[in-house]
Every structure is written in C-alpha cells, then in structure tokens.
Amino acid sequence: MCQIESYQEMFERVKEKGEGAFIPFIVVGDPDFETSLEIVKTYADSGADALELGFPFSDPLADGPTVQAADKRSLSSGMTTKRGFEFIKCIREYTNIPLGLLVYYNLIYKMGEDEFYKAAMECGLNGILVADLPPEEVGILLDTADKYGLDQIFMAAQTTTNERLEKIAEMCTGFLYVVAVMGVTGARSELADATVELVSRVRCHSDLPLAVGFGISHPEHIQNVLSAGSDGAIVASALLNIIEENLENKEVMLQKVGSFCRQLKEATRHKKIEELV
Questions:
Q1: Active site residue 166
Q2: pLDDT of residue 269
Q3: 184 to each of 7, 62, 121, 131, how far by Cα in Å?
Q4: Is the separation of the CB atoms in 26 and 40 below 8 Å?
Q5: How many domains are contained in the chain?
Q6: Which residue in 52, 71, 151, 231 is the catalytic one?
Q7: Which of 136, 153, 254, 277 has its CA at a distance of 20 to 30 angstroms from the CA of residue 244?
Q8: Is residue 273 situated within a structural domain?
Q9: Residue 114: phi, psi to the nearest 5?
C-alpha cells in the first residue's frame, strides 16, 4: 500500500482536475462485516475520493431512520468498536484515500480517549468527527488528535453563528463538515436555498476545504453545493437505502451501489454554470 493520502492532498488532487470530492458514507458492519467490506471496496473502485465511516451506536441522535436502521443491522451482526478498527485496517490494506470516522462520544469515553485515538491512528484513519460533542466541550481531544497525527473535524450548521464559526474554524483540521439541512440525516428530494447560503457563509470564515453532508442524495445536489463554493459532498442515506433495499441479493446490491457512485462522482465534474443565490 502506498503512503496514506491526507485530506489536503486529496482536495488538491481533485481541484487540479477541476472536480469536487465525492465522499460516500457507510455504517461499518452493515449489514455484516464481509458484505460491508465489499461495499466499501465498491465505493473505492467507483470514484470515491475519500470515505466516511460510521461506528454503529444504539442512540444516534444526529441520524434519521435510514442510518438508525443501518446501525441496528450492524450491531445485530456483532459489530463492536474493536471490530470496527479491525474493519478499518482491512480497508486501509485496499486503498490509500483518506478515511474519516464519524462517531458518538460515548464510544470514545467507554474505550478511553487516548486508547481510542491511538487505535484510530494505528488502523490508518485520517480524522475523527464526534457527532454529539460540541466544540466548547472538545477539551483534551484536540491535544490527543494532535498527539496521534489525526485531524479533528467539526460540523457547521445553519444555526451556527458567525462568531462560533470563527472558533470552529480555528480548531478544525482536515476539512469542515457543512450540515446541509436542519434536522437529522436522511435523503432529500430537494436542496434548500439555505444550504447554498450556508456554504457561502462558511466560506467567508474558513480557508479549510468544505464538504457538505446531510440530505445530499442526487447528482444535482452535488453540482449545487460545489457551485456554491463547497470542495466536496458527502452522501450517506441515499446509498444506505440501496443497501437496505437489496439485502437479499448482494450481487445486485453491489452493482447498484457502484452504478450510483459513478453517477455521483461524475456530477463532481460538471458544476452548474448559473449563479446560485
């Protein structure tokens, strides 16, 4: 395996090609360890520039029913935090693109902050986003992330004030996760104008790469957020829906996942020309 690509290197790579970054998400172990690994490999082979991985959690407050169902399938298959790190090691043997982990703080607390971040580094992760830990409470995690060479990633939402954006931008490394919608995760049919406005506002407060997630479920959504100034798009529920709808036929599942990923990556190469406001 080649040297692990950093987020900075990845965003520069896609920018040089005139593209945006396509970042698909999966709950580790959904629907089971081996199938989940095949799905991730399909992501990597179908245009993913980076991967966002979620450790399953019993009470995922930021997530809608699609991710909750994926969490339940993963936990039912026997996934644990320890097995999650083993899973990431398997991915790292397959690809050198950036790997980010979305996790709830309870899992870090239970394992111990230093031990968790050390395990994250050893398995080849690039960064960690703690979904339910506000910047004001991050405390020692910043030093722990720095100790193990990991990016600490934060979210910015429509309710985030400009003053708070400044603080988040100072602490965040790797990229800044821009939350596209009010509420929890889940596929949406349309992208609100407020999302485009938020991307523009965040861009004024940070030079970090921006990746938009929550509700990004169509190629035109990706085109819109890239045109607004985002550097990438994170797609979760739309892909998890394909997994859930094809649990009885893995071959069809992988085929559909790969096809949809290629469509989404293609969208990063064709930004809309008209000005978005």
A1: no
A2: 92
A3: 25, 5, 29, 11
A4: yes
A5: 1
A6: 52
A7: 153
A8: no
A9: -65, -45
Q: Domain with 53 in it: what CATH number?
A: 3.20.20.70
Pair of tokens at residue 41: 């490999």
The answer to whether residue 275 sits within a structural domain is no
d(CA 19, CA 7): 15
145's tokens: 């992330």
Average pLDDT over residues 3-17: 97
Based on its alpha-carbon atoms, the radius of gyration of the chain, rounded to whole angstroms, reads: 17
81: domain range?
Answer: 7-267
Instruction: Read off the tokens for 74.
Output: 């993963």
Q: What angle separates helix 250-267 from helix 219-227, to the nearest 10 degrees?
A: 30
Query: Considering the domain boundaries, does residue 247 fall inside one?
Result: yes
Q: Count the residues in the chain.
A: 277
pLDDT digits (tens, 9 = 90+) for 194-231: 787 888 889 888 999 999 998 888 999 999 899 889 99
99 inside domain: yes
Catalytic residue flag (residue 52): yes
Amino acid code (one letter) for 35: T
Q: At what angle do helices 237-245 and 250-267 cross, to 10 degrees?
A: 160
Please pick, among 5, 19, 30, 63, the residue that the annotation labels catalytic.
63
